[in-house]
């Protein structure tokens, strides 16, 4: 479904992403891991159209989307949940969800999708008219994911969904990712919690200094010396 080849992202003098290659099949979860500053968010940003690539190709079902406007990429079925769960704090849960569903052509579509999201995230039904900023960190993360799902994306890009959350809440987020995967959604998961990411993913890519350091089946990477020493505490 997604194939990234020789992708580079440059900020001024800094090459944040350097000739990165990977591919993601429909219905699979790919984990993209690596240290702070490795280029993970820049890679997601390039796929979502928020960052203009300096080079390379990003193919979505064979079509090169590199450099297209973010809005067009979103309409092609790609949704990003950004790092730090940037929901609209002063808008209600309902308003946040409606904004995520702005791509829907009809009011009936929007209503149907909203109902599906409230079934999937009962907590959002409970706080439907509350301001986003009044939700807990975990609830805001759920809202951020639900908002991205409102557009019925085919490819979900998740940037550090577990960051700053309590262990129990992290479990709930990963249960949800499992559930989304079983529903057939294709997911590119950037995650600091490498152990959990490798559990849910089929394949993984380790980035170091903007380049691919290691790639392969998630189970194999979980047993590799490099990943164990660098990310899994030996
Ligand atoms: N808008 C920007 N302007 C200039 N440099 C940037 C910009 N965004 C990121 N960088 C730099 O690019 C490199 C990669 O950053 P990026 O955010 O992609 O890494 P990351 O792997 O997501 O890191 P983290 O785990 O901390 O989120 C870093 O050196 C960062 O300082
Ligand atoms: Mg990042």
Give the gist of this structure:
The chain is built from 10 helices and 10 strands.
Describe this structure as you would to a colleague.
With 234 residues, the chain is α/β, with parallel strands linked by helices. The protein contains 10 helices and 10 strands. The protein has helices spanning 40-48, 70-75, 93-100, 107-120, 122-126, 137-149, 167-182, 194-200, 218-222, 225-231, and strands at 2-11, 14-24, 29-34, 55-60, 63-64, 78-81, 155-159, 186-190, 203-208, 211-217. The strands form 2 sheets. The protein has a 6-stranded mixed β-sheet with strand order 6-7-8-3-9-10, with helices on both faces. Strands 2-1-4-5 form a 4-stranded antiparallel β-sheet, with helices on one face. The protein binds adenosine-5'-triphosphate and magnesium ion. Magnesium ion binds next to α1.
What keyword list fits this structure?
single chain, 234 residues, alpha/beta, Rossmann fold, 2 domains, six-stranded mixed beta sheet, four-stranded antiparallel beta sheet, 10 helices, 10 strands, 38% helix, 26% strand, globular, binds adenosine-5'-triphosphate, binds magnesium ion
CATH superfamily of the largest domain: P-loop containing nucleotide triphosphate hydrolases
How many helices in DSSP terms? 10
Distance separating the two termini = 34 Å
DSSP E strands, number: 10
Low-confidence stretches: none
- Rg value: 17 Å
If strands are numbered along the chain, what order do they take across the biggest sheet? 6-7-8-3-9-10
Largest β sheet strand count, sense and barrel closure: 6 strands, mixed
Q: Which geometry do the CA atoms define? A: globular
CATH architect. name of the largest domain? 3-Layer(aba) Sandwich
Tell me the fraction of residues in β-strands, as a range: 25-35%
CATH classification, class level of the largest domain: Alpha Beta
Our count of domains comes out at 2
- Mean pLDDT, nearest integer? 94
Ions and ligands: adenosine-5'-triphosphate, magnesium ion
Spell the H/E element sequence.
EEEHEEHEHHHHEHEHEEHH
Helix content: 25-40%
CATH-defined fold name of the largest domain = Rossmann fold
Instruction: Kindly name the structural category.
Output: alpha/beta
